[in-house]
Design brief:
Blueprint (H helix, E strand, L loop, with lengths): L1 H38 L53 E4 L5 E2 L4 E7 L7 E9 L5 E9 L4 E5 L6 E8 L6 E10 L14 E4 L5 E2 L4 E7 L7 E9 L5 E9 L4 E5 L6 E9 L2 E11 L2
Parallel strand pairs: 2-8, 10-16
Antiparallel strand pairs: 1-3, 3-6, 4-5, 4-7, 7-8, 9-11, 11-14, 12-13, 12-15, 15-16
Length: 288
């Protein structure tokens, strides 16, 4: 009986050990399968042979900033014209004034135009005339297109130089400048020319026979443009006359070269205007 009980316990133990072994084997197999799955590398999926390869796009280059321009000095400042008006310094100004001296008291025309002026292009023009004594006379008008604008000027009582400025009215801006001369008229034809301030020149020391002599006539207080035609006569020691004509202007000398110094003695010189004897002189010639 005791033996039989032991046999039953031994059989039960064997069965239990076999069950434990089987479970351990199953567990070991399960662990070994996980390790094999982990150890086996997985290949990356292969691209389809028909798929096109798209290249990467490169970013567009960013343009460099432009270099700063070279330094250019600013032009000199010019006066600004009236708002909305044309630029006066783009005009081509021409002026007119008497080109020959005029007698005192005569009315003169002073003109200005824009040579390249377009039809209807208009500028306000101021004129200042400075008299010989420095006092100014002012006038105003307009220049239109390329037409002349004239300013009659009658304040010419003083002999001398008149300076004319054209520019912006009532300002110091000048477009152009001109001038003219005025002279004091001499005696009217048939008048007394002897009242003028005549001066003569001739040798003051004796000259040798055959020497050329310079003779001259001058109106000491003659004004610019004041001119007279004169006749000069030379009477030599033999009683023979030589003569020549000339013109004396303003306060300048009119010179005459006399070559006929063939005789020793006194030579007399006479100056005439319109038949009037206005001055005389003399000089001596020696045999040397």
């Amino acid at each position: 009986m005791r033996y039989g009980a032991a046999s039953r316990r031994t059989a039960a133990g064997k069965a239990l050990a076999l069950l434990v072994f089987v479970l351990a084997a199953v567990a070991l197999a399960a662990c070994g399968g996980d390790e094999e799955e982990k150890a086996t590398p997985t290949a990356p999926p292969m691209a389809s042979p028909t798929a096109a390869v798209t290249p990467l796009e490169r970013p567009s280059p960013t343009p460099s900033p432009p270099l700063p321009p070279a330094f250019t000095p600013a032009p000199p400042a010019t006066p600004t014209p009236e708002p909305g008006g044309p630029t006066p310094f783009a005009a081509s100004w021409q002026t007119s004034a008497p080109r020959e001296p005029v007698p005192a008291g005569e009315v003169v025309d002073l003109g200005i135009r824009n040579r390249i002026g377009a039809p209807g292009e208009t500028y306000a023009i101021g004129v200042q005339v400075n008299l010989p004594d420095g006092s100014p006379v002012n006038m105003e008008d307009e220049v239109v297109g390329d037409e002349w604008t004239y300013f009659p000027f009658d304040e010419t009582d003083l002999p001398g130089t008149y300076t004319v400025y054209f520019g912006v009215p009532q300002s110091d801006i000048i477009y152009a400048e001109d001038s003219f001369q005025v002279y004091a008229p001499g005696p009217a034809p048939g008048g007394d020319f002897t009242t003028l301030t005549w001066q003569t020149s001739a040798p003051r020391t004796p000259v040798a026979i055959g020497e050329v002599v310079d003779l001259g006539l001058r109106n000491k207080f003659g004004e610019p443009g004041e001119c007279y035609d004169f006749l000069i006569e030379i009477l030599d020691p033999a009683g023979e006359y030589a003569w020549a004509e000339g013109t004396v202007c303003a306060d300048e000398w009119a010179d005459f070269a006399y070559e006929d110094t063939f005789f020793a003695g006194t030579y007399h010189v006479y100056f005439f205007i319109e038949g009037q004897l206005i001055a005389q002189d003399s000089f001596e010639v020696t045999k040397g």
